[in-house]
Design goal:
This protein is α/β, with parallel strands linked by helices. It folds into two domains: 6-124, Rossmann fold (3-Layer(aba) Sandwich); 131-321, Rossmann fold (3-Layer(aba) Sandwich), CATH 3.40.50.180. Helix content is 35%, strand content 21%. The protein is built from eleven helices and 14 strands. It has helices at residues 13-26, 37-47, 63-74, 101-109, 116-126, 149-159, 178-188, 242-252, 271-280, 297-303, 313-321; strands spanning 6-9, 31-34, 51-55, 77-81, 93-95, 140-145, 167-171, 192-195, 206-211, 216-222, 224-230, 258-262, 283-287, 309-311. The strands form three sheets. It has a seven-stranded parallel beta sheet, sandwiched between helices. The protein has a five-stranded parallel beta sheet with strand order 2-1-3-4-5, with helices on both faces. The longest helix is centred in the first third of the chain and has 14 residues, at 13-26. The two termini are 32 Å apart.
Length: 335
């Protein structure tokens, strides 16, 4: 499996290529590149590189601090190059001479080896507390997320038992990044995590993820509950859209217990759908402000009255599994 350890963030093609090629000559550690901070954030969330080099021009933008927060969270080393200005964050390693390729490559590759990966993995696996083992409700769990969602999803999926109710997830993500997210979630959690496919019967212990696939994810009842992929236009500005998933869940909430969580993200996708879910009798949760990277989608849902509980990310998995009694019971048994 491709396991990049170096990420270079630079919009300049010639400069970026020189850094990547110099790193390839100095080490066998795989490297990725990004041309924008948005791409860098998504790549860092999914692949967890050990070293990240960022050109100085990006440090003057508002998005840099959000990326820096993620870098600190995943435990990566960050190097800013091509500036004579002093960076306020003392954890940042600076290479002030833009022509100092040797210094930059040395900082990126020195001592970098595959032996670091198990240590990083162990630290990530220890972070979420394990959910207390109790009988999980029979039904479906729906989750929507956007900016910052990869880390939030890792926390939730890492706490789910192997026989959890079927989980359907929509994560806003650029095309091409979804497969890495799915592999990541599958490697850290007990349930099976797979890319959402059309007309697949839902089973306990399985997580279906729609991320960057350009098709909406829904769920329908055709004898049993099964996934449905739709080729419709953007809804709430996105495809796949959280609102589409939640609307489908609302249609089933009177027949099947449904619990849903709206996680960190910019905008309002999922807010209207969450209102419909709550009106239909589902149990609805919004991630709280403190644990969100961007408190947009969950905030709008709460303001619209679509939320039963606002919870920190480390409490959401337990709440989804063992929600309040008002989440309707059903004689339907998930296969």
């Amino acid at each position: 499996m491709f396991d990049p350890q170096i990420l270079v963030v630079d919009p300049n093609l010639v400069r970026r290529r020189k850094v990547i090629e110099a790193c390839a000559e100095a080490t066998t550690a795989p490297a990725l590149f990004a041309t924008t901070l948005d791409d860098a954030y998504q790549l860092a969330e999914v692949h967890r590189p050990s070293r990240i080099a960022i050109t100085a021009e990006f440090t003057r933008t508002g998005e840099f601090q959000a990326l820096l927060d993620l870098i600190h969270y995943i435990g990566a080393d960050v190097i800013v190059y091509g500036t004579d200005e002093e960076c306020a964050d003392r954890t940042v390693h600076q290479i002030n001479d833009p022509r100092g390729m040797h210094s930059l490559v040395s900082a990126l590759t020195s001592g970098l080896g595959l032996s670091r990966a198990p240590q990083k993995q162990a630290r990530q696996m220890e972070a979420p507390s394990q959910v207390q083992v109790r009988p999980a409700m029979q039904g479906i769990l729906l989750i929507g997320a956007s900016t910052g969602g990869v880390t939030a999803l890792e926390t939730i999926v890492g706490q789910l038992p192997h026989d959890c109710p079927p989980v359907l997830i929509v994560q806003h993500m650029r095309p091409g990044f979804g497969d890495g997210l799915i592999r990541r979630l599958d490697s850290i959690g007990k349930p099976r995590v797979r890319a959402a496919s059309d007309r697949v019967l839902l089973e306990n212990g399985t997580v279906h993820v729609a991320a960057g696939n350009g098709r909406h994810l829904g769920v329908v009842q055709r004898g049993g509950l099964m996934t449905q992929l739709l080729d419709d236009a953007n809804v709430s500005g996105h495809c796949p859209s959280v609102d589409v998933l939640f609307e489908h869940g609302a249609r089933l909430a009177g027949k099947v217990p449904v619990a849903a969580a709206l996680l960190t993200g910019m905008g309002a996708d999922g807010a209207e759908g969450m209102c419909r879910l709550r009106e239909a009798g589902a149990y609805t949760i919004a991630q709280d402000r403190d644990s969100s990277v961007v408190w947009g989608m969950p905030r709008v849902a709460a303001e619209m009255g679509g939320v039963d509980d606002v919870l920190p990310i480390d409490r959401i998995a337990d709440a989804l599994l063992h929600g309040p009694a008002r989440c309707r019971k059903s004689t339907y048994q998930v296969r």
